[in-house]
Design goal:
- The chain is mainly alpha-helical.
- It has two domains: 101 residues, Multidrug-efflux Transporter Regulator, Chain: A, Domain 2; 122 residues, Multidrug-efflux Transporter Regulator, Chain: A, Domain 2.
- The chain contains ten helices and four strands; from the N terminus they run H-H-H-H-H-E-E-H-H-E-E-H-H-H.
- The strands form two sheets. A two-stranded antiparallel sheet has the order 1-2. The chain has a two-stranded antiparallel ribbon with strand order 3-4.
- Strand 3 and strand 4 form a beta hairpin.
- Helix 5 packs antiparallel against helix 10 and helix 8 packs across helix 9.
């Protein structure tokens, strides 16, 4: 006989509110929920696994991706759902490669090139944006925060960035998810200026450790996702 669950019993199991469960249902993330004669929700094991999967995926994946992946599974688009989740792992792999690449870069005495692009001491915001792989709006924001500085081209008034400021931009863009406070980031950039490498090395190692933790959480979420897909196929 199929075990049934009330919203309260599942909420207690997952340590969430019944409102959260209803929101997942309203977002079309779980299978249709049957009702009792008195119009109360009657969850089954498949619903429990759906909720467990959502909560597990939330620890390591982006919310919009999780929601779309769950909707696709509900519509029978299992492979499309898995490819969405796979893209998240691809993204974290790219972020890891970038951090390792930047760590190598800041240890190099010669910074005339980055990613095979020529670096100079008179680059426009478009050029540093392309080299660093960040949006110009982010660079302007970091400048307003006092993290980086630019000069002005006397002829046209455009921002001009040196190779030293590009290096700072690359470091900020790589550590912005793990260094949360502006003053802490400013101190790291000062360390970069003075070649005080130990704090910078520690910050990048912390960033890599965080990525390793996120990767582990992603796989734990995927394990629950595969259990959910198997239940849906039964």
């Amino acid at each position: 006989m199929e075990v049934t669950y009330t919203p309260k019993s599942i909420a207690r199991k997952l340590n969430v509110s019944t409102t959260t469960l209803r929101r997942y249902e309203e977002q079309d993330l779980i299978p249709e929920v049957p009702r009792t004669a008195s119009n109360r929700r009657c969850y089954s094991s498949i619903h429990l696994q759906a909720f467990v999967t959502i909560r597990a995926l939330l620890k390591g994946h982006d919310i919009p991706v999780i929601y779309e992946a769950m909707r696709k599974i509900k519509r029978g688009q299992t492979m499309e759902s898995l490819w969405l989740i796979n893209a998240q792992q691809h993204n974290i792999q790219l972020e890891k490669q970038r951090i390792e690449e930047v760590l190598t870069m800041i240890n190099q005495a010669d910074f005339s090139r980055f990613r095979n692009l020529k670096v100079s001491d008179a680059m426009t915001i478009g050029e540093v944006s392309a080299i660093a792989g960040v949006n110009p709006s982010a660079i302007r924001h970091w400048e307003n925060e006092g993290l980086i500085r630019s000069k002005r081209n006397e002829e046209n008034g455009y921002r001009i960035f040196t190779s030293n400021e590009l290096r700072k931009i690359i470091v900020v863009s790589s550590l912005r998810k793990t260094v949360y406070f502006i003053e802490s980031m400013k101190q790291l950039l000062d360390d970069l200026e003075t070649q005080t490498m130990a704090p910078i090395q520690r910050s990048f190692q912390l960033a890599l450790k965080k990525l390793n933790g996120q990767l582990t959480l992603q796989y734990q979420g995927i394990a629950e996702l595969m259990s959910y897909i198997q239940k849906m196929d039964e």
